[in-house]
Amino acid sequence: MANFYTDNPSLKHHLEHPMMEKIVELKERNFADADKYDYAPQDFADAMDSYDRVLEIVGEICGDVVAENAEDVDHNGPRVENGRVIYAEGTQKNLDACRKAGLMGMAMPRRLGGLNFPITPYIMAADIVSRADAGFENLWGLQDCAETVYEFASEEQKEKYIPRVCAGETMSMDLTEPDAGSDLQSVMLKATQKEDGSWVLNGVKRFITNGDSDIHLVLARSEAGTKDGRGLSMFIYDKRNGGVNVRRIENKMGIKGSPTCELVYKDAPAELVGTQRMGLIKYVMALMNGARLGIAAQSVGLSEQAYREALAYAKDRKQFGKAIIEFPAVSEMLAIMKAKLDASRALLYACARYVDMYKVYDDIAKERKLTIEEKKEQKYYSKLADAYTPLAKGMTSEFCNQNAYDCIQIHGGSGFMKDYACERIYRDARITSIYEGTTQLQTVAAIRHVSTGTYLDSINEMAKAEVVAEDQDVKNTLVFMTQQYAAAIELVEGVGSTAFRDFMARRLVEMAGHIIMGYLLLEDTQRNGEFRDSLHVYVNYGQAEVARHADFITNFKPGDLAYYGIATEKEA
């Protein structure tokens, strides 16, 4: 009997982070629900015990059900019949198991049928599910769309839809179209208001994950004659009302259990969410940030699976009379895979905690006026969440792809065959750095936090923490890396060219990421010495990467941009 939570001690390490006490007390409003619901916690210890028990259930279902079904789901996949998606048999079994265990709508309030979990343990569940089957995490994890309904919809809409999600119904976010991928300002699905005030939707959506879900969040053009983001609004579409059919399911490289659909809307009844014209500007931005955190969790789960598959094979496979793990070339690969995994998980849960903090203050602000100190904390954590989300999505998805690649490399020729799970992991991993905003778009979102000093301020704050003597040399290395990073920023900004800054953005963001992840692992090691090996390996790796980027930036001449087909401001 496998359990993907209890067999991974690093999860409990992150669950027990010192910040969790404040997060839980705020989320539980000092445990005010204890007298209203028999399953509400009485105190912090009770809440943590509840998270632990539920995550153990998630781990058991993932180990015994979801992971066992993954190969068949990958082979068979979903299909379309009469405009409806029919899930693979294994996918349906997975959903049934999660519904019976009450694992849907974990982060929603109790009054709406949820468990009122903070984001951090919810993201931990997504991490666990992704290790079992990344494609299934897309179906289960899209319940996070309910967070957008909770945050922006009317009370009537919350009471109508969120209990259904908590009871097990699925959701999707219908954003992209054939001519509007990352450029969501170009969305043209038409929303028309009828004389009675109701709305109908007409048009086509493409690349919609779990597109035949029960409840859809839809971005549509509500303002006739507009062509930019200011003419877009957000709507809820309920499949019970009809009007939307699945034209086809995309034939994808990976995550095959997750149906990616092309949808046709024909006078589909819909409900406006919030205010007209705010669909992209406000609601989709919040929705995408949540989705990006979810993809970071998916990336970490896949990295975990890739590392475990590679480690098991390296211990078992013998060449020249000994297990291949005994060869330095292989042991080095495994050490770096583990370090990237641990660093990715550290960044993921730091980001999740920052999201928890600012979201709980947002929620409290709906009930009462925040104090001056609370407003200050809300602003502080909102800024950190905004900075860490693209960093987490970008860095963890790239490391996920690298670990999947190395997993196959360690398997050698066998890894190229479908006999081993690593072939599926490799295909599943590839999408993580593409959907919900490519790594390049995460860089665009992150670079302003380089320019404004958010990352440097965060690094300098972490550098204040005392460390044990054994780790002082590692900290000194991180301090030196920070000096290289600060010098690189000064050099790039000193050129005074937007084109030059944008060209160097990826390098600057990655430098920040390596240093932040190094400090987070350093912090983890102070609480748990089991991370020390990964700390040393990762900082050695990160030091080389930071030096490489610093060297490139220092020696690059702005005039050389032309060789890359990039025009300067003057030439443009």
**Beta strand %:** 5-15%
Number of helices: 17
Number of strands: 11
Q: pLDDT below 50 for ≥5 consecutive residues: which ranges?
A: none
Helices and strands: which structural class? alpha+beta
In short:
The chain has 572 residues and is an alpha+beta fold. It has helices spanning 9-15, 20-27, 44-76, 89-100, 119-132, 134-141, 145-152, 155-166, 279-316, 328-365, 372-411, 421-429, 439-451, 454-463, 472-495, 498-527, 532-555, and strands at 79-81, 84-86, 171-174, 190-193, 199-209, 215-221, 232-238, 244-249, 260-273, 318-319, 322-323.
Describe the overall structure:
It is a single chain. The protein is 57% helix and 11% strand. The protein has 17 helices and eleven strands. Helix 3 packs antiparallel against helix 4, helix 10 (328-365) packs across helix 16 (498-527) and helix 16 (498-527) runs antiparallel to helix 17. The radius of gyration is 24 Å and the shape is globular. The model has no long low-confidence stretch (mean pLDDT 96).
